[in-house]
User: Fold these one by one.
Assistant:
Number 1:
Amino acid sequence: MIDPICFIHDQFLPLSQANVPVSDLGLQRGYGVFDFFRVKGNSALFLDAHLDRFYHSAEYMHLPIPLERAQLKEKIQELINRNRFSDSGVRMTLTGGASPDGYQPGIPHFMMVQQAIVPPPDRISDAPYVLMCYEHQRQLPMVKSTDYLMAVWLQPRVREAGAQDVLYTSQGWIRECPRSNIFLVTASGTLVTPASHMLKGITRANILQAAQTIMPVEERDLHIDELATAREVFVSSTTKRIIPVTKIDQSFTATYNSESYCTRLFELLRSAEPW
Amino acid sequence: MIDPICFIHDQFLPLSQANVPVSDLGLQRGYGVFDFFRVKGNSALFLDAHLDRFYHSAEYMHLPIPLERAQLKEKIQELINRNRFSDSGVRMTLTGGASPDGYQPGIPHFMMVQQAIVPPPDRISDAPYVLMCYEHQRQLPMVKSTDYLMAVWLQPRVREAGAQDVLYTSQGWIRECPRSNIFLVTASGTLVTPASHMLKGITRANILQAAQTIMPVEERDLHIDELATAREVFVSSTTKRIIPVTKIDQSFTATYNSESYCTRLFELLRSAEPW
């Protein structure tokens, strides 16, 4: 069993020895933020974009990060150098800390855990990928909080439905999957992705930029009725990049080939980005 | 500094030594449930009602409690006997545990922390108690989950507004405060409390039962427009029992005296219950 080095309470420790006190507000009140970035060899990918988002999440949640950005980057590099994974991901977590009254944030606890992960595949997936819609609006959706109560709770239902993931919708509007953003290609070949009430992924931003070279792009609210006429749907995430969606409830089905926009976008990212 | 004994990972330990691994799903994904009951001397108050709710919360969240109810009662009594507080509260917390993939619940972590608390006052409070409405529907509201993201996040705003707490409303409907239930006395003297989309408190149930002897009682959805004509509003909780609300935004103001229903209900509980 690998026991990677992690960074917690301002020191480097084996993960097996990394604990937080039970009084931590992250545990007792679900109050915390995090971010997750990929590491290829000894390089953190899109680190500045992830740090921008992490500092924003923390500020929004009134949780000061105990390290200046330059210091944090040094600690990240030291963590990477110590662990020497070939392909990995680093999860930075900042919690409410030990609270004097169990309610008001105290001094936040900051920790980083690095673990081996499977890098994104070289070719876009051709496996079925089914989404199940569920009526839910994440609270404080612009923040990458540790609130996955609904996502974890829905796991048995997702499996029962034969789906791979849940797609949150709110009063008819398409929002996001718990750990990925959603894109739709309209009948006329425009790429659309929701603009609000969801977390803006780093891969989402990279796709929006790359797509501008091959198709019209729109960031706007997306209604579930638009699934009926959509040509393609795909989801994006840091670990998977792009996954084509083959079915969403009774609203959408599709198959894909090498000419599909999602395939072409996958290849665009593949050739332009560290993989 | 008092270091009470707590119960965690099936053993009794000083709180200062009670930790959970950083991989705990309660910390990483905000996935957990809890309950909290008062202890007077060596007696746990309304323990069966709290255990009913705790086992229900756990089952709903697919988290098995690692102790049978009779065993759990024994551990609670042992905890109480070891700590010997005169007035205290016990918080039982059950989290998703160490997860194999950081997403699916693993083997839950169960812990109990006992701490000294101030017992409810002998007389009903005559201090101003102001609520600030905020549009929010708690997710899985019938479960006492550890999700207090919105409540903790709103704390600075509550203080800025000069309020004591937030009242969640959803599309015009009154739900609950983050840690208490709400009651309203109509102009005609009927006691009304929301029936759905909120957590049903143990003190709430005790009040509903006691009130039947002095006034008509209704459990039903309660619209914010009803605040304008309400005669009284109060909140209920395990630690405070009944607190009269003096103001809610621009919608409601009231003063109370010994003839007020809330005062009479307070006295009814005071005389009937262990205090």
Number 2:
Amino acid sequence: MNIGFIGLGRMGRGMAANLVKAGHEVTVYNRTPGKTGDLEALGARVGISVAEVCQGGAVMTMLANDEAVESVVFGKDGILAGLPKGAIHISSSTISVALSDRLADSHASAGQRYVAATVLGRPDVAAKGELFVVAAGAEDAVRDAAPLLDVIGKKTTHFGDQPSRANLVKLSSNFLLASVFESLGEAIALVSKAGIDRSEFLEFLTTTLFDLPVYRNYGALIIEDAPAPVGFAAPLGFKDIRLAIAAGEALRVPMPLAGLLHDRFVELLANEGEDRDWSEIGKLARRDAGESVGAAEPARGDFVLV
Amino acid sequence: MNIGFIGLGRMGRGMAANLVKAGHEVTVYNRTPGKTGDLEALGARVGISVAEVCQGGAVMTMLANDEAVESVVFGKDGILAGLPKGAIHISSSTISVALSDRLADSHASAGQRYVAATVLGRPDVAAKGELFVVAAGAEDAVRDAAPLLDVIGKKTTHFGDQPSRANLVKLSSNFLLASVFESLGEAIALVSKAGIDRSEFLEFLTTTLFDLPVYRNYGALIIEDAPAPVGFAAPLGFKDIRLAIAAGEALRVPMPLAGLLHDRFVELLANEGEDRDWSEIGKLARRDAGESVGAAEPARGDFVLV
Amino acid sequence: MNIGFIGLGRMGRGMAANLVKAGHEVTVYNRTPGKTGDLEALGARVGISVAEVCQGGAVMTMLANDEAVESVVFGKDGILAGLPKGAIHISSSTISVALSDRLADSHASAGQRYVAATVLGRPDVAAKGELFVVAAGAEDAVRDAAPLLDVIGKKTTHFGDQPSRANLVKLSSNFLLASVFESLGEAIALVSKAGIDRSEFLEFLTTTLFDLPVYRNYGALIIEDAPAPVGFAAPLGFKDIRLAIAAGEALRVPMPLAGLLHDRFVELLANEGEDRDWSEIGKLARRDAGESVGAAEPARGDFVLV
Amino acid sequence: MNIGFIGLGRMGRGMAANLVKAGHEVTVYNRTPGKTGDLEALGARVGISVAEVCQGGAVMTMLANDEAVESVVFGKDGILAGLPKGAIHISSSTISVALSDRLADSHASAGQRYVAATVLGRPDVAAKGELFVVAAGAEDAVRDAAPLLDVIGKKTTHFGDQPSRANLVKLSSNFLLASVFESLGEAIALVSKAGIDRSEFLEFLTTTLFDLPVYRNYGALIIEDAPAPVGFAAPLGFKDIRLAIAAGEALRVPMPLAGLLHDRFVELLANEGEDRDWSEIGKLARRDAGESVGAAEPARGDFVLV
């Protein structure tokens, strides 16, 4: 299929590369230039405007937040203005339920189709095309988008025809991950102050009741004093918790654990700055308990998680 | 080995039965009579006093809480008075860190040995002898207790020579389980009020990032409106969270998520009574969000979990 | 002074009336027509557009939320477009710190002056001209606005030249009030379930350590089963807590009590709907404790508080 | 009246002195000797055992916690053993509801009378005989104790014939005070990080909506960086919050704000040690927000509060 791809951050690059390798004609675009070298080498065309990547049957977006998506969609010469009638906007960004609902309305009014296809997984998983995809939208649109989703992910789960449900499921998943950081963090702080070796405790947990990569891999970060390499930045994790809370506000669902995670992110950002992995909130229980953690700088470079 | 076993509740019965089947000479005792029929049929002797079961090389206790253990150990004609010098008290009950420390001191003063060997698993797992055992105590005592622990569990993890560490690890594990109920409960409330099918959401989670029996089995209880069968009673789960918080008080570890779970248990007991499974706290997010849950009576009968 | 006044809700009506009575030439405007009768009778002129009320030396706005203020200021033919250079926009609405900062920038760019003059007090206090006023802005602007502020309030406190500080102080004050509802609510639930008469308990508190109208008047609402008359609607109180949390996010200040209040408002709105006084969050502790509260409809009519 | 007085800490000394000055024949006793000099000078007799102070018509106790009271009452040669039938034990200590209920039962079984007469106020207020007294117990016992209560306090409020209600009311009052520390602390952290002068903010609050000594005096401590002089030690305040939570557990009342205060005390004790005033929890919001507070040692000497 002739498609466009907007958003070449750590996740988007891998997704776009897989689409190219799968034989699709992909025109890529990034607001900040200079990230397209590898993709060109693979055979991608590089567009110099949003409009230019909206000529095909679909455009996929993978951007950081609501503001970025709004800018690319609603801006002058944006997707809404440029995408042909009947073509599909596949939005993979982690955005608010409210914006997803607005995108659904706007694209419908413009005669375009819209699929929310959020993804679970870290950059290395995206590079391998093994993301978990959560898709929602009109049946025909999801069906027509399926060949593309099959390329970026190893499995697609459908949540009906209201696109924003895919966004809500994604936010809920990130909430559940952050909840693991907090619960592990408190348990680790407790046993650590009792003199138990943190790695032995984690080894015990992850070979008995919690034999799961999420607990094993994030636990391995949380038990360390030194900051983890930044796989998913704390400000983005914080944004997702805020969006989950905002969804809860609109749906009238009190989420006290989400509120606790919210405060943990504020505490982390206040004390350690922006440049931390989101799992660092799992060290704050030890910090509040008077142990010294997190002094050094985070390690650099890629790393594999979940 | 010639051993005693005190506490024939749902967990203790299975553990004692396995010890008998493994060829040990087991004298059993329960404060409330009438629970020994099956064990006698297997070949256990039935003692009519604590003193009577303290004649062998070891006595294992599996009781409901601190009060029960204190009564059996420190009471007139209790274990402390009756157990021979050098014999081992193996305590598997989920009790406080403080009581475990006190037991260690008391048994040492009496020339007896003491091993804390807490267990993870539900009654059906105990019946199969497949519990996860967490053991701590003096090296020789743990070594001598090992043949018994190997019978009741499929794996024993050691946490050094301070017995109360085994209790702290057990409390931390139950804290982590209850944390899963809360996080799942909030996420489920959120998607449920958005109209997403709860079982489809759970199926998605447990086939992607959270592919773990804990999430799958407890999630299956939490998504239901009707109360779950009581596998582990809410008052016992509440006790364990209180003990985790008490350990945090003593060690100076603030545990805000444990505090939230505490309040959930109080809310559950206030509104639904004592006779509920502890996982029912995972439905309170939906309740607070205005959905009606939990009206009916819990189902009866055994069931398999974790 | 020749001034405009926009926003004739329960608070604004009283403020505008006092300005008229004090001899100022006031042109009033409300987006929803039909609220100007009493003010005309007092001698106010009625404008039919925002532009029409921006002809004088100052325009005062008293609106429900950020959206209303944005619409009136930034909209086509809004205050920004219509207010003469050098004239003052006095904003009394409870809005976000971020919008107040944006207003400061925008008015400065347009050569206009801007004073944030938030107010504490309920409609009956506004009608008497006895509000507490919190003012911030450039010294000359605050000085020129002072005669108007002296009319609407009995006391003005200054917080320097950054207007948004007046907004932050207002949000903090409402946070403190809502905190009183929660703390009183939990204490009342505790003694109530112990069988202590709630009004005797409140009488005790407010004649000993908590001898303050805030505790006495709101306490009198919270101890009742029936919903209180709606003096300040729960959705508005909820908005203020959200704005306080948002300010905390931007300033990197974790506010766990604000987070708790947030969840209380969500619980209230989920279970009782929008049409409740904000102090009703103080009854949720009793609700969660299994007592039945809040079934009936709130009483109607004016009432006096704080 | 011929009475005994046990517990000559900072509060008890003042209370006993006032009883002596009022003309009662007072025999005092303290477990730790050497605190009786001033009282002897006033005319008090000094007893050398609990039994010795139990010879009169009443004995008043003012001790630090449950353990101290249990030791003095239930110990060999304790109050229960020594107090004549019909004489009154007046307990002013801040103890648990459960212990107070147990005291009521025990004294009744021994044919003695029991009044819980808890007190609100700091040592300087006790010295002036101006405490607020909260009394509960059998009508005749409270009536007979009244002349003594009138000496130690300026006002006595009655809460019926179940003594533990006086304890619950006392715990609720301390919960409300600590809630003020937290709410003030969060508001102060918020405005402080925005650059607002903390003392100007406090002055504003306490001259408008929160014109109350509790807010003014504790606020003045909380806005400072340096630790406050220790008027009421943090471990005692922590104990009272734990007792309030324990009462909530028994009565099935979820108290999330009490839970938050609990965690604040743990955080304070973990990071600053035992030797801090309980109001220091009000500085933790600033600490968590990354501001540096509390480094220095607390000032010494008496000070006046509430």
